[in-house]
Amino acid sequence: MHSLHNQRVLVIGGSSGIGLAIAAATTDAGASVTIASRNQEKLTAVATKLNGAVHIAVLDTDDNGLLERFFERQVTWDHVVVSAAQTKVGSVRSLSLTDAKAAMESKFWGAYRVARVARINDGGSLTLVSGFLSERPSATAVLQGAINAALEALARGLALEMAPVRVNAVSPGMIETPIWDDLPREQRREMFESTAAKLPVRKIGQPDDIAKAVLFLMTTYATGSTVCMDGGGVIA
């Protein structure tokens, strides 16, 4: 495996959840890490939590002009990770077209816009975060499955277009992150327990599990691959 020592890593969506775990893990591996998100306050709080070990940048993947200006004034990166997305969940017939389009804009087109303008060193990597609904669709989250499948197909195509930059995707199952914090505590606990009981591993994934998969993809030979990190959710 290649070392991340002194490698420049950009984690878009790095201020919470999976992105934060990736930022912490790459920092621990010796990389020079920049975390980016839309929220300056959250970025500052995370930088403080990590004892100033990361740089911060305010970025919005919906804003192509902002992305272009950011990458133009930065030196090239060794690794870029895109985990930023905001999507409302619902069935096709219940989700408004406005919300559906916003979900596609955020998760798919956000990653697409980053891929268009990111300047990555040869032999470096771009990693997208998708989700296991691409392979195991849900009747109440049809659009999310379609977006995740599109992201994984995008990664495979980009692996050819951007070579020798390596492009991969990581596909998480249910992960215990702050995205679920809006649910009442008891409801959240019941959801995690019932999901864990159905999984072969009998537990819910943690952000660190996904971070380990991302580090694997950064430091190995893989390209055009999707690493499924769902505790067996696809086969359960």
Q: Which descriptors apply to this entry?
A:
7 helices; 236 residues; 7-stranded parallel β-sheet; Rossmann fold; alpha/beta
Describe the structure.
By secondary structure, the chain is an alpha/beta fold. The protein has a single domain (8-176, 208-227), classed as NAD(P)-binding Rossmann-like Domain (Rossmann fold). 42% of the residues lie in helices and 18% in strands. Strands 3-2-1-4-5-6-7 form a seven-stranded parallel β-sheet, with helices on both faces. Helix 1 (17-28) crosses helix 7 and helix 4 packs parallel to helix 5.
Oligomer: single chain
- Number of helices, counting only DSSP H or I runs of 4 residues or more: 7
Count of extended strands: 7
Biggest pleated-sheet summary: 7 strands, parallel
Number of domains: 1
The coarse overall form would be globular
Mean pLDDT: 95
Order of helices and strands: EHEHEHEHEHEHHE
What percent of the residues sit in helical stretches (DSSP H or I)?
40-55%
CATH homologous superfamily identity: NAD(P)-binding Rossmann-like Domain
Task: Briefly note the CATH topology name.
Answer: Rossmann fold
Q: Strand order of the main beta sheet, please? A: 3-2-1-4-5-6-7
Span between N and C termini? 31 Å
